[in-house]
Each structure stands twice: as C-alpha cells, then as structure tokens.
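Researcher: Structure for this, please.
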Amino acid sequence: MEEKGCPVWKVDPSQPKKLEQSLKRAGNLLKDDEVVGFPTETVYGLGGNAFSDKAIAKIFAAKGRPSNNPLIVHVPDAAAARSLVDRVGPTAQALMKAFWPGPLTIVLPTKKGKENKISRLVTCGLSSVGIRVPNHPVASVLLRLAGVPVAAPSANRSGKPSPTRAEHVLGDLSKKIAGVVDGGQTGIGLESTVVDCTQENEVVILRPGGVTIEDLRKIVKEVSVDPAIAASSNPKTSGPNLEVDEGKLKPKSPGMLYAHYAPNAPLTLVEGPLERLQKAIKDAQAKGQKVGALTTGDKKVAADHVEVLAPTASDLEAASRNLYGALRAFDQTSVEVIYAPVLPQEGIGAALANRMLKAAGKRVLRNVDKRATSR
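Model: Predicted structure, token format:
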C-alpha cells in the first residue's frame, strides 16, 4: 500500500504472530541503509542503521535536524545495549532491569577507538550514546529483523510536533523516506525520559518523559535534573534565553536544545485562573485575530477553535497522549494564535510542561494586561 508516494505497511500490534512476515520488507530496508518510520510506545521514530554514516545522514536530511543534536539508539534487549557501550555500572543495570523494555533512554560511555562501531553522526562526536529498549511489539520485531542497532529520532520535520500516528509521519516526510510502518496511535504520546549514567552512582535527567522522577527514585535514591532542563520545564521560572547560540553547544541528549513541537500558529501559556485564559483569548479576538484554545474538559473557554487534551486537568496521562495530535490539529485550521493553561506538573506533568513550554517558545503570559513575558 502507498500513500503520498510512500510505501505504508499497516500492521496489527495485537497479532504478534503475523508481525514478522508483515515487517520483513521494512527490516530489509533498514539493513540496506534506508530510513523507515515505525511506532514505539512513545512516538513514531524515524529509524536508520546506527552503524552507517549513510543511513544516519539520510535521517538528518529528511528531518532537517541540526547536526549537533544526537540520536537515540534502539535495540531489542539489554544484551544488545551492553554490546555497544564501554561499561554498564550497577546503577544503569538497576535501571535497565526496572524500566526496560520501556520509555527510558540511558546515556552510557561508548566503546573506545575502533571498537566503537556507532556512527559519529549518531553521537555528534560525543563519547557517550543514549540507548533504549522500546516496549512496543512492532518495534521489538522490527529491531530483531533489522539485525542492527537502529538510531531513531521522532519521525517529523525538526521543530514540529512529534508524530503519534502514521499519518503524521506521512504528512511531514512522505517524499523523504523509504516507508512507514502503521501500527496505530502510540500509547504514551511523549518521548522517552533520558538519563545520564556516564558517572557511576549519579543519575541526571536530561529530558523528562514517560518514566517520572518519582519512578526513578524508587530504584535509585540520588536522582537530579540537569539545571537547564529544570529551568525549561517550569512555566513559573522559564523564559527565552536569546543570548545562547545553540548551534555551538553539544547536548548529551535530544530535546535539550532548540525550539520543538511547535504548531504553525504561535502558542502562549497562560498562568492563573480560567478567567485569565478567557480574557487573553478575548483580547486577541478584539484585535481581529482568530484564536485557538488548547485546554481540558473542565477548563471550558470560548474560542474560534478549541482542542481538548483530556476530560480534566488532572488527567495528565491523557493530556500527554493527546498533546501532539492536538497541536497538529491546529495546523488544519485558520487560527492565528493559540492559548493554553498551565497544567499541573506532578508525575508525567513535568514532561508535559516541558513539551508545552518548548512548543510555546517559552512564552508564558503571567498578566494579561501586559504582553507575554518570561522573567
């Protein structure tokens, strides 16, 4: 089956016995250094052979991705992960046992010299690499069929909302990749948590995601958050830093730099009571703008187009699962600006806040009588 000139292999994740035959073509393409979109439990990934400069260059070209933004390597099991790195200490071992397969990426030291077969394009020249074992039947079978570690960022144009359905991948990349495996909507809807375990007995969160800091602290007592991520995940303290030249930095993980997840219309977060959100919308409409609202069922507002993330603001899992689809839905409308409330930040809400702030370019409206500011 083809859509928009791109091969699409529609599969049923609930029929594991049929997956191997259905995914054979996609697996062979990965072996041949082509790039393929496929579902994981987090978002759809754009996969390529992590050993091949040719394949990884295709990923960066298709996405328009900055060359200093490293990729995460996906493998079928922990043994495959261990074979790629210099060492796996007790702390990393404990995290693997607790959270793999699952939405946790662990950054570990690469092998040294010629023993390191991972493309330098994957690691952006760093001496570490992020690795994870996805918890999705389609991804698991595909990785085994490929027979190589698969580097896979989200399967979207760089800076746009990540894809949670195959049609999102096709909309962004159909003419740039070898095919897409359609396994339906993803489950979590936000990218994996990334932790740095390059130093033993030290776990640093580089990107919040499906595994929360509370989950991690049940396994490892000492867990910290990278200061840059802590600042950029809190709508109360975050703001745009216009003096940083991100192109010259070397992030250890994807998601640490650059504007991400943004819809076409500018998004602004509104702190405070519901009345403040509604006033911001009315003020924009009074200026003749068509306004979108990204909200929850218990925070009803009047706007030109409304996307509802979840029944209530406390249902953070549903809000996370639906965020990227809602942001993409605005691109199919004529709205010129979008407003959204600041949601709770406990549990997976920390990852949700991080993504919403990045989608908003860190614009937070703290007083609707003044322009959007970030102190």
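Researcher: Any notable elements?
Model: The mean pLDDT is 91. The CA atoms of residues 10 and 62 lie 22 Å apart.
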